[in-house]
Amino acid sequence: MNLRLQPPTTSSSLSMTTFLTEFWSHTLNFRTHSNRTSRHSNPNFVTSSTPLLNEGNTNNRRTRNKQAQIRVNETRPKLDQNYDFRDTNLMEALDRSCKSGKYDESLYLLEQMVNRGYNPDVVLCTKLIKGFFNSKKIEKAIQVLEILEKHGEPDVFAYNAVITGFCKADRVDAANKVLDRMNKRGLAPDVVTCNIFIGMLSRGLRPDAYTYNILLKSLLNEGKWKAGKRLISDMSDKGCEPDSVTYNTLIYAFCKEGKINLALKYLDNMISDGLLPDIVCYNSVLASLCNNGHVGKALNIFEKLGKVGCHPNVISYHTLFGALWSSDNKIRALRMILEMLSKGIDPDEFTYNSLICCLCRDGLVDQAIELLVDMMESHKFQPTVTSYNAVILGLCKVQRVIDAIEVLAAMNQRGCLPNETTYLLLIKGIGFGGWRNDAMELANSLVNMGAISEDSFKRWNKTSILDLII
Prior knowledge:
This protein is an all-alpha fold. Helices cover 65% and strands 0% of the residues.
């Protein structure tokens, strides 16, 4: 059979639409057109040089510099010894100063370090932050944090020290802002952070919903369900009503842990409170239901999305497609793709890969190849190694090894590099086809070339080829 792996130049090639129409006996033009994404160029920044100063300005500048130097000398902390920064290890000096509680001196040494190109040590900076807060010098503690953020890498312990200091000073708004800074740097609060705020509650302090949401997300991501439940209870007791972010965080976490009944319960509560779940929230629920074998419930929720004003996206459709196909409801699965395309929702690479994998799994390899060709002709995205591997596996399972090798050749020609899985599939296919000696020879060659690892080769060699074919 001609695999048609090279895209034809005529208009006779089958698109996804044509394939589905012929496969399911429907007539519909599926070819979709994606909106072109505009490109944004980076703005050009114009710099200007500083004009030369005349003699009078130079004298004035010297005067100002001298006056500034006098002020600096007056405010500079007095050192117990004459530090020669050319010879003294600044880190050791800072460590000794911090341990002896000379925090002003420590800050001066820290500034000298970063001015000379040293990266601040996060542990010493955290000690210095705690020292300044204990000394009621809050502004200097923040100054240390700013130095650490600009020249180093603050961690959760450094931020916890600042949050603790602000909470002890009853400055909950400032603590909230630090939590926000922490979140923007990609650092998730830990249980200690949460306990600091929960303790920011025993004294009657009231964090806002944003703070609760960050803490709740962190606790649930770490599986701290009891602490999360306590936080929600505190949130309700303090009169801070949960918002849509709160609910989305809870529902996503429940779905991730397989607690689908709780996810559905909070989904109903969210709607009852007049809050509309977004499609990301619904997709989490749909995926969890499908993964746990509740395809009927997932389909029921899916069909109501439009009525509640939350329209499904491409992820919603191919989630249901995969579940319906796996549950042997192939006609309904294909209808799902048809409906998606009829509503102007473009398929993405996951849609194609889902279709290709499902077809290959059921032995419909020729139809999968047609989709692979259609994917090649797409101007929006190209087949990935996952797409090719699925077709190669499907061909090997039906003992069409020569065709599988042709797919590998087309894959290379189009610049998609095979991975270890690609080669292992071919080796298994060759062996399953009855050419075990050839399979062994190919495996040895690929190991010598570095295409597959020795560990993978050993696993393959120990296991029967028949057992490796899924």
